[in-house]
Specification:
The N and C termini lie far apart (34 Å). The strands form three sheets. The chain has a five-stranded antiparallel sheet. It is α+β, with helices and mostly antiparallel strands. The longest helix is centred in the last third of the chain and has 15 residues, at 148-162. It is built from three helices and nine strands, in the order αβββββββββαα. The protein has one domain (12-162): Alpha-Beta Complex (Peptide Deformylase). A hairpin with a 2-residue loop joins β2 and β3 (66-78). Its cofactor is Fe(2+). This is Peptide deformylase. Belongs to the polypeptide deformylase family. GO terms for molecular function: metal ion binding; peptide deformylase activity.
Length: 163
Amino acid sequence: MAMREIRTVGDPVLRTRCEPITEVDARVRSLVEDLLETVDTEGRAGLAANQIGVNLRAFSWNIDDDLGYVLNPRLVEVSEEEYQDGDEGCLSVPGLWYPTKRAWYARVVGEDLDGKEVVVEGTELMARCLQHEVDHLDGMLYLDRLERSVRKKAMRDMREQLA
């Protein structure tokens, strides 16, 4: 197991749609261990495989003392009428938080290392995490979901941060 380095904005792996996991082998088992160890730090809610440079569909979460992972997750349900507009951040966009509209409830279906179905669902922070991490696996960042004026500010803030 290893605490892995987080890839940040500008790394092309973050904009690449992750490949499905077709076989659970030693590499996938090691990936899950690394995802769990890397997310198990205060202030970290979720971590997608591509955020540590691995182009496979897997993510981990660390919400309210619940640490877990899912392979090949599919976002199968979100609340249609209830939304949340809180600030969202990302380990791959360090130090910057912006209001991001997300569904209040979300449910993801995937599998565990034994090939058994896993259902992960929740409201508020867990729902935000599930949506955020599936976006990562699809090559999206939360910045892509910002309203236009907020996104412009985010891009300006990132440029200033890098200067």
